[in-house]
Write a sequence for this structure.
């Protein structure tokens, strides 16, 4: 199969769809790989690194799309790329369709095969291709939150770890999934007092078992969220509903109950955000303030640490890329139920019901 790795063109996105190590494995399996020139530079991988493992470097993104049977990316295609995607072409990347109706319609019109990293699902319900980026984003959420709590950034002026004689900052984590666990771990490591909330008691029991005593759990209800937001300095939204739009756990009116300078980091922004006032921001312009509450809503947080993120992503995507390249998408998905769940849009039809539900469409779903 001919596999293309284009350069990411989303704002400040420095990751790349595949490391040279991944390309080496594809070439070893007799596949042709085209990599767009400078695609890997932001992650610390250069054209010569790809050439040394057998890739051919192409100058333009148009050439990569035109010559490739399968595109391996990181982020969803943006408007400039819509017209480059061909009928029958496999596009393997993060899509997050439920948060973007224009993207969904564009991919339907392209009649391509859209396989979304975030909905590939193992038998135990885990999301193997989302997990490493969730781990990165969860850890980064605390780093960024700590920075924006500083007064020059319009935060409360709180040091999360405190100092002797001064109480530590308080961090509220919504969701005890991968993002939430990693965020709680980082915040606890800094010495902050952490409250983590979820509706899944099994997850809360797990948190209680593995976290230190200054990480406490609470069952998530609107009443309890309203109680905690009044006295927490940093709020991290880490809620995920597979393939669906995130629920609004914090509504606009709740902002007035927070102390001025409170910081919200909404990691769920890719799925529409779990805060009503969330709107996607970029690394170039990452924050905005509503009712004196600082919102950090960067939609590609792991893109700020591309070396770590690209390696972590290729580690988990490569087995699926090889399976698709070796067998074609139909045979690969028939033989692998996890990969089959990654099918979102196929040849002009939406095949993932949560996407239709997100837009209240009445189109038929292919199974």
């Amino acid at each position: 199969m001919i596999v293309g790795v284009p350069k990411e063109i989303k704002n400040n996105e420095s990751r790349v769809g595949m490391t040279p190590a991944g390309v080496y494995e594809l070439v070893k399996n007799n596949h042709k790989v085209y990599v767009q020139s400078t695609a890997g530079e932001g992650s610390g991988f250069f054209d010569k690194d790809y050439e040394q493992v057998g890739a051919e470097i192409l100058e333009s993104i148009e050439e990569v799309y035109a010559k490739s049977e399968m595109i391996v990316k990181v982020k969803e295609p943006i408007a400039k790329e819509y017209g480059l995607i061909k009928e029958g072409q496999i596009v393997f990347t993060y899509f997050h369709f439920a948060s973007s109706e224009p993207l969904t319609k564009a991919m339907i019109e392209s009649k391509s095969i859209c396989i979304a990293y975030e909905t590939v699902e193992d038998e135990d319900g885990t999301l193997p291709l989302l997990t490493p980026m969730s781990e990165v984003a969860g850890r980064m959420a605390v780093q960024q939150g700590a920075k924006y709590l500083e007064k020059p950034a319009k935060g409360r002026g709180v040091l999360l770890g405190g100092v002797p004689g001064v109480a530590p900052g308080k961090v509220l984590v919504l969701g005890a999934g991968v993002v939430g666990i990693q965020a709680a771990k980082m915040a606890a490591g800094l010495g902050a007092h952490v409250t983590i909330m979820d509706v899944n008691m099994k997850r809360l029991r797990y948190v209680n078992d593995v976290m230190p005593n200054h990480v406490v759990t609470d069952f998530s209800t609107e009443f309890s969220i309203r109680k905690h937001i009044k006295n927490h300095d940093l709020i991290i939204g880490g809620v995920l509903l597979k393939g669906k739009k995130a629920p609004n756990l914090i509504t606009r009116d709740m902002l007035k109950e927070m102390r001025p300078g409170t910081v919200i980091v909404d990691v769920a922004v890719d799925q529409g955000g779990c805060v009503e006032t969330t709107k996607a921001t970029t690394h170039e312009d990452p924050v905005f303030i509503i009712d004196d509450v600082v919102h950090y809503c960067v939609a590609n947080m792991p893109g700020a640490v591309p070396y770590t993120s690209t390696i972590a992503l290729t580690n988990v995507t490569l087995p699926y890329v090889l399976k698709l390249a070796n067998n074609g998408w139909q045979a690969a998905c028939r033989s692998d139920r996890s990969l089959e769940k990654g099918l979102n849009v196929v040849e002009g039809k939406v095949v993932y019901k949560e996407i239709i539900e997100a837009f209240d469409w009445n189109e038929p779903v292919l199974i």
